[in-house]
Amino acid sequence: MLFFALFLIVLAGNMANADEAKSDAFEALTRSGFEHYYSLEYDKALRDFQKAVEINPEDARAYNHLLETVLFRELYRHDALDTSLYTQEGFLNSKQVVLEPAAKQQIRDLAEKALALSEKRLKSNPQDVQALYARGVTRGLRSTYMGLVEKAWFAALRNALGSRSDHEAVLTLKPDFVDAKTVVGIHNYIVAVLPLRTKILASIIGVTGDKKKGLEYLAEAGKAGGESSADARVALALFLRREQRYDDAFKVVESLVKEHPRNFLFALERANVLKDGGKGPAAISAYRTLLDDSKAGKYTDPHTELAQFGLGEALRGQNQYQEAIQAYEAAGGGSSDNHDLRQRALVAAGEVSDLLTKREEAVKEYRAAIALDSSSNEAELARKYLDKPYKGR
Q1: Mean pLDDT to the nearest integer, 258-263
Q2: DSSP string of 57-110, one letter each residue
Q3: How buried is 363 (Cβ within 10 angstroms: 0-12 exposed, 13-18 middle, 19+ buried)?
Q4: What DSSP letter does each residue of 183-200 carry, written as one string?
Q5: Helical segments of the chain, H only
């Protein structure tokens, strides 16, 4: 009997050690996956996150990591991650991001799996903080997918509200769960800056915002070093740009560049902030350095059309028109799947050509823009300038 008891103690100890080793392996793969993810090395990130799923197939968090990587790999592939796209008022009218059916199905399957695992835990314990947080993350990612890919705004809103509700519940149960402040902070800021009519409609269904609280929450999450730290700082920098607090935004972006030096988008954002902040010569230098570093192989899969367009804008702001045209043409003539970006570049090249009274060149640029997509807002603008030369903003 004593021997049997000792055997059970030893067995339990071995099982505990095995569980601890399993947990350590899971966390190591998760950290490695995020290092690759924030270097835009999506395929390497997917390999690590898939191994983490195999170690713990009942963890919704592991599936969320796969879901986030697949979704953002596809958005990056289609040049839909440049924050400059989301500072424009016409963003909601932009074309949807068109993904391959297989990628869309993979995203939907991963979201369903993650939700099922969270719901399973919440049925046993509705106050399970980890499950609530995981479900909120999944809902947030589904909101992004429904908004950008499906252009299904009501479904995107429903998931966004669910995400915020879950993470507010997390903070009620565990106020020091700082990662949950990222989603809540984003939603507070966005609702606070909605047009008045939309804000009133939102308040009717109980959705309120607080700009100051939103920025404070994002700053806290960004500094905490948790899983959502980088995402919080990306959102914070974007919102600070919108508030024209460019020096503050630059500091936030610099922290991202320092931590993830191989991330092309973070380096691009640094140049964007300089441009928007009125520091034209510094922005031009930053864009050119980014393009040189891309040629030198510093970044994984750099989408240089984004940098060329930003460079064109910065050069135009400094009245360096001929060089601006060259940068715009490089962006418009590139291989980006984002036709909105290419059309904006070609129309801009036409505008600058008109300013230089090079009408023949301007007409050529406008026609090239229309040829990419004759039904877009940019095509309509190009047709306007075909009839009447651009005279200036």
Answers
A1: 97
A2: TT-HHHHHHHHHHHHHHHHHHTT---GGGGGSGGGGGSPPP---HHHHHHHHHH
A3: middle
A4: HHHHHHHHHHTS-HHHHH
A5: 2-37, 42-55, 60-77, 101-124, 129-148, 153-173, 181-192, 196-204, 211-224, 229-242, 246-259, 264-276, 280-295, 304-317, 321-332, 339-355, 359-372, 377-387
Helix (H, G, I), strand (E, B) or coil at 176: coil
Give the tokens for residue 362: 């301007």
Assess whether pLDDT exceeds 80 at residue 201. no
pLDDT of residue 200: 72
**If DSSP codes are grouped into helix, strand and coil, which group holds residue 143?**
helix
For all residues of the chain together, what is the average pLDDT?
A: 91
Counting Cβ atoms within 10 Å, is residue 128 exposed (0-12), middle (13-18) or buried (19+)? middle
Gap between the Cα atoms of 216 and 234, Å rounded: 14
**CA torsion sign, 334 to 336 to 337 to 340?**
negative
Confidence class of residue 198 from pLDDT cuts 50, 70 and 90?
confident
Residues found in the chain: 393
